[in-house]
Amino acid sequence: MKPVLSIVVPAYNEEESLELFYEKVSAELEKTSLSWEILFVNDGSRDRTLEVGKELNRRDGRVKVIHFSRNFGNQVAISAGLDACAGEAVVVMDADLQQPAELLPEMIRLWKEEGFFIVHAVRKVYPEKVGLVKRLSSRCFYKGMNLLSDTHFIEGASEFRLMDRRVVTAMRGIHERSRFLRGLVQWVGFPSTTIPFEANERVAGTSSFSAMRLLALALDGVVSFSTRPLRWILYLGFFSAISCVPYALWAIIQFILHGQSRTPGWPSLIVAIIFLGGVQLISIGVIGEYVGRIYTEVKARPLYIVQERIGFDESRNES
Hints:
Helices cover 50% and strands 16% of the residues. By secondary structure, the protein is of the alpha/beta class.
């Protein structure tokens, strides 16, 4: 029988937390009286994450593991879990237990009784270790995305959410390679609600999301959901051209009144070169980001490659 609830868990070097995650989440799921499965997606881990997942599967057949051939990234790992899960509702969670499993019964109630297709868990309180810079950058990111995009982004929302099977089916129909799932979930629509939570400390290990990876994810979000940066380049070009007119008039007046300076044209030449050079480099960089996305999509490579599946019924198509 197909489970009612699927828990999709991307895992990268999470050997220390998988056991604790299983114990905590399974205990909460048992309270719901619903059939369930936990699907770990091993995203090319370099530790014993795969071995721990296999051991959990031997102990409980409701635990399944997808093992990638290499690291494909968090967003792709979640997408693979959505492709393979079988539940009528799907919850995406991180393996580090920063997202409290105690919210699962309430999320399920909002889905079953209130009729919401999506239940977003919104982080309201950060752990004490999270610095002021990260909190401010997160807030600025969401405000910037809402400014740039026609799609509304919920401030503080993470990948921790419950989705109805119809939402998952819609998500599976999206085949773009540069993925920003928080935006895609908003883009597909469906009735949704939010539930606040206070993030816990990591139970083990360290986060694999460095500042550069977070920046890359934010860049994917901007490029995937807005073409306004390209329009702003056009505006910047007009501004650069128009701003030169007052300076040219000032230079002509100065020449008429005072004649040539000791170093004629030197200041204006340097300023013009630096300013226009910077504008051109920024413009090429922004255009390059969009062209790079086009190049990636045109190649149409598989989103991920699975090396091994553990716990799946191979008679059923899990593609």
